[in-house]
Amino acid sequence: MYQAIFYATAEGDSPVQEFLEDLAKKPRAKILKFIQHLEERGPDLPRPYADTLRDKIRELRVPYGTLQWRILYFFDGKNIVLTQGFLKKTHAVPNEEIERALKRMSDWLRRKEA
């Protein structure tokens, strides 16, 4: 089994935790349920629930009515590091979200080794 971890900056800010705290109770509960499925299945969680975006960055795809929530993450061994969450408003995941996730992954790995 895998363990989901909220990425935190060196200052202790957690983008995913802040994102979840700002949501209403029902969509937050659904996203947390999808995270639980991700922990159970890991990289074997299939589409339409999860997909690979670029390099090692993946997306957890959470539909909620007409809305599409996304949680970006990467695997670090048995850890699933959740980098950010957002409401998807375009057909493709915005490149700036992927770039942000890549920077957070680099930061995570650099601080882990230090």
Task: Summarize the structure in words.
The protein has 114 residues and is α+β, with helices and mostly antiparallel strands. The chain has a single domain, classed as YaeB-like fold (2-Layer Sandwich). The protein is 38% helix and 32% strand. The chain contains three helices and five strands. It has helices at 15-21, 25-41, 95-113; strands at residues 3-6, 50-54, 57-64, 67-76, 79-87. The chain has a five-stranded mixed β-sheet with strand order 1-5-4-3-2. A hairpin with a 2-residue loop joins strand 4 (67-76) and strand 5 (79-87). The chain is globular. The two termini are 26 Å apart. The model has no long low-confidence stretch (mean pLDDT 96).
Q: Summarize the biggest pleated sheet.
A: 5 strands, mixed
Total separate domains: 1
CATH topology: the name is YaeB-like fold
Strand order of the largest sheet: 1-5-4-3-2
**Class by alpha and beta content:** alpha+beta
CATH architectural group: 2-Layer Sandwich
Could you give the order of the helices and strands? EHHEEEEH
| Overall pLDDT confidence | 96
Helix content: 25-40%
H/I helix tally: 3
Global morphology: globular
**Percentage of β-strand residues:** 25-35%
**Topology, number of strands:** 5
User: Terminal Cα separation, in Å?
Assistant: 26 Å
CATH homologous superfamily name? RelE-like
Instruction: Enumerate the spans where pLDDT stays under 50 for 5 or more consecutive residues.
Output: none
The CATH C-level name is Alpha Beta
